[in-house]
Amino acid sequence: MVTRRNFLLGGAGLATAGALSQLDWFKALKQEYPNVLMLIVDDLNDWVGAMNGHPNAKTPNIDRLAKQGTLFTNAHASAPICGPSRASMMTGLAPSTTGIYGHIKDDDIRAANDKAAHSIFLTEYFRKHGYYTAAVGKVFHYRVPSGSVDDYGGRVKGFGPYPEQNYVWDDPRTNTDWGPFPERDDQMPDYDSAHWIANKLNEQHDKPFFMACGFLRPHAPWHVPKKWFDMHPAKDLFVPPFLRDDLQDVPEIAKSVTDHPMMPTTEWAIENGQYRNIVQGYLASVSFVDSCIGIVLDALENSEYAENTAVVLWGDHGYHIGEKDKFAKMTLWERATRTPLIIKPPQSKGQQISHKPVSLLDLYPTLVNICGLPKNESNEGRDLSPLLADPNHPWQHAVVTTYGENNHAVKTERYRYIRYEDGSEELYDHNIDRDEWRNVAREPGYQNIKTALAKHLPTENAAWSPKSFYDGNEYFLNKTIEAGASGRM
């Protein structure tokens, strides 16, 4: 058996492998070190069957993976927006450390600030330790940073294909629209990405691999072929509960931070008879991407790597589909921060469910440990291996989500505490209020709870990196101008 030291020496280890031929050495290497297959889904909330997030959800392939590994039902993004969420996960650093609060070009991540400059991307870390690395689709925010993987299959620009004219919603500041388009699955970029990774899984690899596939749907526009809409007849769909005066008890800054005028509101959707149609479009998009995930899972199961590959699936953040009068991400409420996370180690115990609060930031150290690699000491996340061994393992940690400088949400098993940069607060008790309709931050009985939760807030709040940008609403447009950056969502 090849020693771990030899593996970590990379090519130099071959010279110390003694009588082993190069072929035998690589065979031993592949047996000792697991492969990694990472599936990333854009804008995916809990509307998957395994999470019981929506009664009309149809996701047999995600559900299949959930039955084979550990499903984390209380997983949250480091940021409720694609760019900073992915940058955080891939660097192992929180947004409050890097100052990456908005979108950022992939090649600019390490130029964000001094701490980001010393980060090693997750793909690079595995590559550094002898892995072949491959990626396709949206893995970081746009593509992948230059030189961060051995083989990149690319991604289409934008989130098309697009019809000649939008079907319903036409605002140039957003991709939001819904309706059946195009005609066939093979016209969709995610279909191509799935087959690209599937083909890689069918190849012979002479050393362990780390492969990542980033799917675009259900990111808007909610355009997928008609058969996926037909799977979810609009007239039969459950519509999420909506409270018209939901925001009356939140501070003014919360309304400013979460004001997204380019998106439809729930009031508009109800008045124009579009609420169920939007729900249909989102569910159809989720079912479509689930089918693409199935292509990849089938390829893995039929490959020689099936028994020695860790599989992880995650969404980069959640999404409001009508809750709190919005169809958007970009808030610090539960709907925008919570997302599915499934981890299936090579030697999985089978189906497990953990309700402990975990972060996507925890993925980096967890995968490093699963694969037997040395720790990256700069990682700010926590290794989830204890919860993979026992999903009910004592876990006193909280999860932090950040949206802009010094705006944070702290999530435990029971509470969500939000503090904004002006000191304004929100607090929700999920034991009695899963919809977060009642802000109890000012109620006397919860003062000690707030004090305890506030201890989890970051002690460092890096200034906005001039390399990150966001113009999604007036509040963040002002922040962008202050930071000296510019750009479109």
From TrEMBL:
Residues 34-371 form the Sulfatase N-terminal domain. Pfam families: Sulfatase. GO terms for molecular function: iduronate-2-sulfatase activity; metal ion binding. Belongs to the sulfatase family. SUPFAM superfamilies: Alkaline phosphatase-like. The lineage of its organism: Bacteria, Pseudomonadati, Pseudomonadota, Gammaproteobacteria, Alteromonadales. The keyword Repeat does not apply. It comes from Echinimonas agarilytica. InterPro entries: Alkaline_phosphatase_core_sf, IDS, Sulfatase_CS, Sulfatase_N. This is Sulfatase. One of its GO terms (cellular component) is cytoplasm. Keywords: Calcium, Hydrolase, Metal-binding, Signal. Its cofactor is Ca(2+). PANTHER family: IDURONATE 2-SULFATASE. It comes from the Bacteria.
